[in-house]
Amino acid sequence: MVEFLIGLGLPGWVAWSIAALVAAVLLLNVIAGGALVFIWAERKIAARIQDRLGPTRTGGRFGWLQSLADGIKLLAKEDLMPEGADGLLFRLAPYVSFCASFCAFIALPFAFDVVGQRLNVGVFFVVAVLGLEVFGVILAGYASASKWSLFGAMREAAQVVSYEVPLGMCVVVPVMLAGSMDLVTIGEKQAGWMSSWYLFHDPFTFIIFSVYVTCAVASVNRAPFDLAEAESELVAGFHTEYSGLRWSFFFMAEYGSMFLVSGLAAVLFLGGWNGPVPVAQLLGFSDGTGESAAYVVRLMGLANFMGKATLGVLFMMWIRWTLPRLRIDQVMTTCLKYCTPIAAVMFAGAMFWQLFLPGGLFPGWGRPAGEIREGWLEGPGGLPAAASPAEDRSSTLTGGEPVERAGLATRSPR
Amino acid sequence: MTGMFDMDFIDFMDISTLTHVVPPLATTLAALPALPIAGINWHSVLFLLFAGLACGFAIGVVAADNVVRMALYLVFSLGATAGLFFLAGAEFIGAMQLMIYVGGTLVLLVFGVMLTAQAPLVSIKPSSSDRTLTAVAGASLLSLLLTAAFSVGAWRGPGVGVVPAPSATPLGMALVGVRVDEPPAGTPVGGRVGYMLPFEIVSVHLLVVLVGAAYLARAKRRRTPRPIDALASAMPVEPVAAAATAAPTGRSAGGARSALVGGGR
């Protein structure tokens, strides 16, 4: 895109700024638009699970416009602040939460080339930034000068700090299998049929995926782990004192984080933008088909990824309205006595599996024969160009091939 | 700063229809290099921005009275430092900075401060003698650092230009004992081994710390039993059995209650 803009005669810095702005606005729309859709979906799903109808009138039969109406209501609400509150921190806290959630989207790939900034430590960056969201919650709890808020913030801090440990261990397993922390590379290694997804790589990854889901739900503070805003005990927890648009920033951060951990699950375990069936390959797209084919293939990859991430969010809603809330001791027990040891054992198991059966459960089966993958067209500007010189330098170890390619070759001889 | 947004598919659009619309805009914007703004090195601008933020918030930490505000400024200062690392292309270090300093340590710090802080600690107003003393100490340390930094010849003058950003792979390989990067010429063979020993030492050290923390935080048993405990243990079976039956019912009652209240938002 930058080249396109420079080609129009724009100076470089304008082109870079416009490209960055477009990326930022697109990502912002993923969060804000996603929140609108998901809040409506959550209302409908909650209603159906509780044998109600949910919104039915606003904007037609299914209440499509309910979120919009909510948004207008929130805009019109009075912006209140408690008297004893720390004004600066109180105003700042929602933005800290939202920014943390937003920043993590920068490194999340939506299809092979559709990524804000391709980082070679993408997984690590996303997990690190996701952990910052708790800081906004702590600030909100402290600055509100309310006991309910402070209790909620304390619970959230304890919970998130604990659950980062098993979450990190779960995330490390796909990194180990792919041999890279780059989210694009991890997604690209799972191309082909469904059997090459890391979820089906071996039994250990299958189990560790369930641990990841548990920890992800806990780390985004959703029921049954929503102790920070336990409304039956703490009124509304850390956002008791917030109203109007500030409150809605917390909500957007929550829904953004939900989408983020679902997207991370999709990339790490569910093949990312690779569909269950390599449609592009079956349709006979190949390098010669041209650029319009690459465009279609990317759109298909985008649809795949969005579908998987949305399914993840819907799953979180399902368990939220199905399971009762845990007590704080049960939350800690789940984390420290179950999730962490299971994750550690599965990590070791996956390690030995990778050592002795590197092909996975279905070695050599279902790998695409050609070079075309869903959402990815290997061409002159494809992966080889993206490999950095540092990786090329490491090729002396592996007999001439760059490390990552060599790892792929030993795993599944094509 | 390559690949800010790799959505190349815009290139695939047929731009020939656009060209007769675009040139006026393009010529207008192409005139911009004549402005002084075009000659600016934007890398330096971003560096100054992040460096200024880091320094400004660091001063804020010192100047603030409230402990939690200090922590907030510290977060912003360390976050801006992470931004400097990202700007330099050291993505791993940047993410590490975010994870360890901003994410872990500071959350724990705030956590600890809020749990332990008493009234005099929440709002810190040092006396003027304290201020003078710390100012002298801080200024001398700063001058020492500045002298040391400016005495390194390679750090002065223009930068070395664009260097390829290394990935985390050589770092990881070096930590398990294999150096895949090229050491400077003349390094003996012993210099080619990685950092496995320090890595293992640090790991074991952290493990010992974890075990120690668990030992210190464990539920402590009383050396001398309380009278009521002695009474309970002296009694025959019934209380124990009663306790055993009471515990599951209590738990299920709690579960039922949370099931009742877990529904609504």
Blueprint (SSEs and pairs):
The complex is a heterodimer of chains A (414) and B (265).
Chain A: H1 2-7, H2 12-49, H3 66-76, H4 87-104, H5 122-130, H6 133-143, H7 147-178, H8 183-188, H9 203-219, H10 231-234, H11 244-268, H12 279-282, H13 291-320, H14 328-356, E1 372-373, E2 376-377, H15 383-386, H16 389-393, H17 403-411
Antiparallel strand pairs in A: 1-2
Helix pairs in contact in A: 2-11, 2-13, 3-11, 4-5, 4-6, 4-11, 6-7, 7-9, 7-14, 9-11, 9-14, 11-13
Chain B: H1 22-30, H2 42-63, H3 67-87, H4 91-116, H5 119-122, H6 128-151, H7 169-175, H8 196-217, H9 227-234, H10 238-261
Helix pairs in contact in B: 2-3, 3-4
Essential attributes:
heterodimer; A: 414 residues; mainly alpha; two-stranded antiparallel sheet; 17 helices; 62% helix; 1% strand; disordered C terminus; B: 265 residues; Four Helix Bundle (Hemerythrin (Met), subunit A); 10 helices; 63% helix; disordered N terminus
> Averaged pLDDT of chain A, please?
75
CATH topology of the domain at 41-126 in chain B: Four Helix Bundle (Hemerythrin (Met), subunit A)
Order of helices and strands of chain B: HHHHHHHHHH
Largest interface (CB within 8 Å) is between: A-B, 77 and 68 residues
